[in-house]
Amino acid sequence: xxxxxxxAFLLTLILGVAAFYxxxxxxxxxxxxxxxxxxxxxxxxxxxxxxxSSFLFYRLYSNFxxxxxxxxxxxxxYLTLGIFTSLFIYVLVADIIVxxxxxxxxxxxxxxxxWIVTSIVISSTIIGILQTIFGPKIYKIDIKIEKLPQSFDGxxxxxxSDLHVGPVIGKKYAQKIVDLTNKLNPDMIxxxxxxxxGTTYQLRTKIAPIANLKAKNGVYFVPGNHEYYWDAxxxxxxxxxxxxQCLINQNHLISKNNEQILIAGITDYDAGWMIESHAPNAxxxxxxxxxxxxxILLSHQPKSYKEAEExxxxxxxSGHTHGGQFFPWSLIVSLxxxxxxxxxxxxxxxxxxxxxxxxWGPPFRxxxxxxxxxxxxxxxx
Length: 381
Fold this sequence. Notes:
The chain is of the alpha/beta class and 381 residues long. The protein folds into 2 domains: 2-133, no CATH class; 138-379, Purple Acid Phosphatase, chain A, domain 2. The chain has helices spanning 2-30, 34-65, 71-104, 110-134, 171-183, 200-203, 225-229, 232-241, 271-274, 282-286, 305-310, 329-332; strands spanning 137-145, 156-160, 188-191, 219-221, 245-246, 250-256, 259-265, 295-298, 315-318, 342-346, 349-353, 371-379. α1 crosses α3 (71-104), α1 crosses α4 and α2 (34-65) packs antiparallel against α3.
């Protein structure tokens, strides 16, 4: 709880500074009177409180008031957060452009700048909301792997990641994901973490459709950072009850025609900070008495790629980044995660990072649609 309130305080401080900056630019651009300037700051200040209120009240609900909380309230709160963060970035970019423009041209129509920024924020928000409503998109990708056993040429894996069932995403959306996945008739399903945002007590019924996932060779789950925020031990037990094989620095062999591939999973990159015994261990996850030629790792955060490659994995499936979730954050996330979306390569290992099957926080995904990934393994020639 202390960690959560520290996070809430830090978020409030950051949003407060951003609100002051945005207010100062609006006042300057529109040349507002003192009265209207004060009103602008009050509105922005109230919006900051509204943005963090869902974090606070959702946590209080989980601890004191039971599993129910207002979906509409949470939706509007997170939507406000998304609009505000977009506004901040666009205002900052506009401010930089205005500085150079004034140095080169010598004059600036500040009211026009304001209306351009406002139009971009409104249009991107509408498009982003529509992309969450009509999502997710099915991404189909072939991955060629040297020495892939002939029996596994054409082996299909559906990856679901960062579903984030919780304050906004509920049972209906989870069932939609299950239905779309089952229609793909995969050989295997990989759940690569951050499937929830809440306690098992809150979300047990909302996440229940996961039990209906069907794959010829099973469903495999690794916890992400959000499972650790909400009691990972309980969630590992819950996903086991839902029929998923939980790989906690462990592996499982899939056999076909006397040939095998190894499916392994590690805990979240930062899990050791919360549960010491759950520190990720790629080498332990790779260990097997049979030592099959091909090894596939499920790792929530792509950051594990170096340890995974050193442990001998041929392919790592990750999530966590959401691909930035919406523009312009999709340009910034690459600074923290080198393999932040799609297919990449590190030395002898492929890395695929799912853009997120749901969303976290703001309910829109402008320019970065949510995804279910259909991966087909192909024998490289």
